[in-house]
Each structure stands twice: as C-alpha cells, then as structure tokens.
Amino acid sequence: MTAEAPDAARRAVAAFVETFGAAPRYLVRSPGRVNLIGEHTDYNDGLCLPLAVGLELCLAFSPAEEAGALIEVFSEDREAPARVHLPPPALSASGPPGRAARAQAGWAGYVEGVVAAMGAAAGAGASRGWYGSLASDLPAGAGLSSSAALELAVARACAVTWRRDWDPVAAARLAHRAENHWVGAATGLLDQLACAASTAGHALRIDFRDLTMLPVAVPDSVVVAIVDTGTRRELVTSAYGQRRAECVRAAAGLGVASLRDLGDHLPADAADRLDPVELRRARHLVTENTRVRDVVAALARSDLARAGAVLLDGHRSLRDDFEVCGPELDAAVAACRTAPGCHGARMTGGGFAGCVLALVDAQSADAFAGAVLGDYRAATGRDGVVHLCRPVGGTSLIPVQEHLPRTTNDSMKESGQE
Ligand code: GAF
After folding, report:
1. Closest residue (by CA) to atom 9 of ligand 1?
2. Which of 177, 211, 313, 380 has its CA 20 to 30 A from that of 1?
3. pTM confidence score
C-alpha cells in the first residue's frame, strides 16, 4: 500500500494536551532524510546529496516555569518517558559512558545524549527544563534517519528553552557528538546535517572535507519515491563499523589520509597494495564521489535519464563493491526499474535492510507505486510501502495553533488565548 499523509504534528499536540492538560507553547517538526547519492562517503571525507522528506517527527513542548527543573519527554508508542535532570550530564569525547552514567537505553538515550551535548555548549544557560510529547511518522531502523530527526527535535527544544540562536550546522554537529559519544553509534555526520540544514525543493550537496554545502534544485516534474521493504536493521550492531575499518585500512594501504584523497581514480597499482575486500571498498568510494558530481550536474540540466542511470550504477556499487545490500533491497530496486515513470533507483542509507529510493515522473507516481508493490510482493512474498515525497526544509518551529485538537482550540478562543 502507499502511505497515508503524515500527521505527526497533530498527534504530538494532541498527546501533549492529554498528558499535561494545556496547549504546548511550541511545536517542532523534524524531517527524516533519504540520500539521493553518496553513500558511506561521509566518514571518508567525501561527497553526498541527501534531501529531507515530509515523513517527520514532531515534538510539542513547553519550557518549565522554574529553573533547575527536569526535561521530560513522552513518546506516543512508549510507556515510560525520557527524563533528564538538570544540570545536564557530562559528555566525554573519550567514548560512550558506561551503563551507569548513560541511564537510559533506546530512544531515551538519544534524548539524554543530545541534552548532554547541547548542555555542554550552553554552559550555565542550560538551567531551565522543558516537557513535551512526541509523535513520529518515521519508521525506526528503516534507514530514514528517525534517530537524527529525534536528536534535532530535542536540540531545537533545548535551544528555544535556553535562548540559544539556532544554527543548523552547529546543532547537527552537537547531535552527531551525542550519537557518537553518548549512544555509541560510530556514524558519520550525513543524517544530522540533512535533517537540520536541508531546504525545501532541494537536495543538499555536502562536501565532508570542509562541510561546504550547496542546495541543488530537484525538478518539479519528479517525485522521490521511497520504497520501504519492511526489513529493518540496527545500526549500532550492524557491519557498519566493519566497513569503516575496511575504508581506513584501504586508505592506509594506498598511502592517503582518507579515500577522498584518491580523487576520481584508483592508483594503477591499487590491486597490488590492497587485499580484494579493501580494493572493492576503495573502488566504491572513488566512483561514488564521481557519481555525486554526475547527479548534481544532471539535475542542474534536468537530465533525469542521466541522473537515474547514475543512481542504478550507485546501487550496483553498493551491492557488489561495498557489499551492504540485501535480497529485499535488490528486489525492490529491480521492481522499481521496470515500473512506469521510473528514471532510476537505488538502495539508500547504511544498508542491509530498510528502503530504496527512485526518481519518478510525478505524473506516473501512482502507477509506479502500484506496479512496484505488486512486483516486490511477487519476488519476496513481502508487503512494502511506498512514500511519494518532495524535498522539504530542515528541522523548524511551526505554529501550534493550527494543530490543536478542535476542542482545545475552541476553549482557547473562548478564553481569549489566541
Ligand atoms: C548511516 C550513517 F548514519 C550515515 O552517517 C552514513 O554513513 C550512511 O549510513 C551511509 O551513507 O545512515
């Protein structure tokens, strides 16, 4: 089936009203992301081209009246709230704290880690608590950055409450520190930057060597179709760390600090200096950076056929050279290729499970979705979900008023709170 229009904002506000008995002061929306091209390049100083999508997490919150209070976040699908006492816990660059220090596991650990990272930046300003309710339309573990969306939403709530200017790049870096040093997931900065710094209608070309960013318009004639294969992975325990280590070994074997330094070609003697696994990893990185440049150029001239062909190349590289594909991801890409209006498709995100994306003519989007889901089911016996997306802007505050449940809205009008 194709997905319903998301309404996380309305659910977050309704949950807040039900839990706290009043309307929230603020509402944050924080999007998920897909990566059009440039996979596993972020931790290799490379290039990538993500975009934020309208599947999002929303956090309704109010600052506490008293300083020195608590941060407390309820989630619609968890019984226990995340609680962080102020002053924020200390975040160490030496690695994730042990279980005793990192009191909360799962989603609450992300809340705790971001409060710690934002608190370190805010210093004595991090004295006031806040309380909130969140709702999400982002499936966890599907490769759409539900974690980064949560991190950035919490960062935004802290910034509002502690009266800090909102700098998307600085916030992304702090959220990334929390993920690396508190949660203990050794990921790159791609997800946080895409969630924080994307602009509507555009993908974001990021150069991880110097963090320069360039919005790249995605032609109005296409949608980005996300095909959720229904398979899930756990980033902390996946082969992600192993791939990172293989890239480091490949760079060392070729005498460069990072694989980006190789430019557009492997050295002629690369096969003599690397083992076969390292050679394949290095080849993916070198060709993937070139593919990012190719897709940026193709989008600039609205050459969707070329952009789609490069996506398909990228998929083959992730499958055969970087070896992070899986049978369901491969079956979903095969289903996309033959579906109406499809220019190209690839797996997206860390890999092994989750989602594929396709560039699809907007006019053919519904026919595309129907064909893909039928073929995917025939190939795997699984039901997928298609989300038809256009690029949206990064984490932002949105008006509370239009998302209030009708009864609350009416009583606020009556009591003159508008
Ligand atoms: C995951 C990681 F979190 C990112 O940093 C990035 O490496 C991606 O996999 C692969 O491109 O989403």
Report:
1. 350
2. 313
3. 0.94
Q: Tell me how far CA of residue 383 lies from CA of 104, 139, 324, 347, 358, in angstroms.
A: 33, 15, 22, 17, 18
Domain check: are 230 and 358 in the same one?
yes
Same domain, 31 and 173: yes
Q: Is residue 1 part of a domain?
A: no
Across the chain, which has 418 residues, the per-10-residue mean pLDDT values are: 67 96 98 98 98 97 87 90 94 76 82 97 94 95 95 98 97 97 93 98 98 98 98 72 96 98 96 98 98 98 98 98 96 98 96 96 98 98 97 97 78 46
371 and 262 housed in the same domain: yes
On whether both 105 and 239 belong to a single domain, the answer is no
Pocket test for ligand 1, best of 51, 145, 187, 243 (most atoms within 8 A of CB): 187
Please check whether residues 53 and 115 belong to one and the same domain: yes
Q: 290 and 248 share a domain?
A: yes
Rounded CA-CA distance 173/181 in Å is: 12
Report residues whose beta carbon is within 6 angstroms of any ligand 1 atom.
35, 39-40, 42-43, 187-188, 190-191, 349-350
Q: Find the domain containing 397 and state its range.
A: 8-217+393-415
Q: How far apart are CA 142 and CA 139, in angstroms?
A: 6
148 within some domain: yes
Instruction: Write down the pLDDT at residue 69.
Output: 85
Best substitution site from 240, 323, 356, 357 to test ligand 1's pocket, by max atoms within 8 Å of Cβ? 240
Probe residue for ligand 1, chosen from 45, 49, 190 as the CB with the greatest number of ligand atoms within 8 Å? 190
Relative orientation angle of helices 106-122 and 146-161, to the nearest 10 degrees: 40
Taking residue 264's Cβ as centre, other Cβ atoms within 10 Å add up to 9
Look at residue 154 in the predicted model and tell me its pLDDT.
98
276 plus 181 within the same structural domain:
no
Q: Are 213 and 205 in contact (CB under 8 A)?
A: yes
CATH number of the structural domain spanning residue 286: 3.30.70.890
Distance 240 CA to ligand 1 centre (A): 8
Q: What is the model's pLDDT at position 73?
A: 98
Active-site positions read 191
Nearest CA to ligand 1 atom 4: 188
CATH number at residue 173: 3.30.230.10
Please give the distance, rounded to the nearest whole angstrom, from the Cα atom of residue 390 to the centre of ligand 1.
21
Burial string for 90-123 (b: 16+ CB within 10 Å, else e) reads ebeeeebbeeeebebeebbbbbbbbbbbbbbbbe
Residue 187 lies in a domain: yes
Residues 324 and 358 in one domain: yes
